[in-house]
Amino acid sequence: MIDLFYPPLCRLCQAPAKGALCPACLDQIALPDIVSRCRHCFAPLESQALLCPVCVRSPKLSAPSAYLFEPMHAARRMESVLACENEAALRLAAASMLVVLWHRLHWPCPDRILIVPRKSHCRELREVAEEFARMMDLPLAEEFCLRWQSPFVWRIERHCRDLLENQTILLIDWAGSPEHLRQAISELRGAFAKTIHILSVFS
Ligand SMILES: [Zn+2]
Ligand SMILES: [Zn+2]
Questions:
Q1: Residue 69 pLDDT > 70
Q2: Element (H, E) at 27
């Protein structure tokens, strides 16, 4: 009855909606089609090739990565809405979408799931990653910290010193800079991780 007087509005664009999101926004944040993506950096491909021209020449990161939300208007709105205190259901939805994406990617099952720390959106990244790890029935490990180097320069370092020999690592990232991701990868390589994959919420 209350919907008759106050029809629910889409969380992203405020258009009338039956659920949390309207059909137009749902369409924009649909899971990416992985078939037409570079197997290494997830860039959209125009040909049947497995890798994009950049990854064929020299990949930006030495570990395969993929992301959930395209850099479109609805995804940008999603970034600010996910940060709102009362949007736990939407963060849960994002975590479930990450699980589906991970399954579709056919990446190996990780031994550890790690968060790539950042200066902003820390709480929402942690909540999404915790839900993701819970759904995967795997531990979310605290491995990295951010260390201040000089004004505006922070570096990612491992605060655990144990070896990761033969371990398969999945990094959960918000929309990290390639520089931070490179630092995280290099810390893990130094600990002899077997494979590293990166799953970002945003591109
Ligand atoms: Zn909408
Ligand atoms: Zn690529």
A1: yes
A2: helix 23-28
Name the token pair of 83: 């940060």
Beta strands 140-141 and 144-150 are unpaired
CA of residue 54 to ligand 2 center, whole Å: 6
Ligand number with the minimum distance to the CA of 81: 1
- Residue 7 within any structural domain of the chain: no
**pLDDT tens for each residue of 24-53:** 888 888 888 899 999 999 999 988 899 999
The CATH number given to whatever domain includes residue 186 is 3.40.50
Range of the domain at 139: 21-202
Question: Cβ neighbours of residue 87 under 8 Å, at least 6 residues apart?
Answer: 11, 81
pTM recorded for the entire structure: 0.90
108-153: per-residue pLDDT in tens? 999 999 999 988 888 889 999 999 999 999 999 889 999 998 888 8
Position of tokens 């918000």? 174
Q: Which amino acid is at 150?
A: S
Interval between CA 22 and ligand 1 midpoint (Å): 4
**Residue 2 maps to a domain:** no
Ligand 2 centroid to 165 CA: how many Å? 27
Residues with CB under 5 A from ligand 1 (ion): 10, 12-13, 15, 22, 25
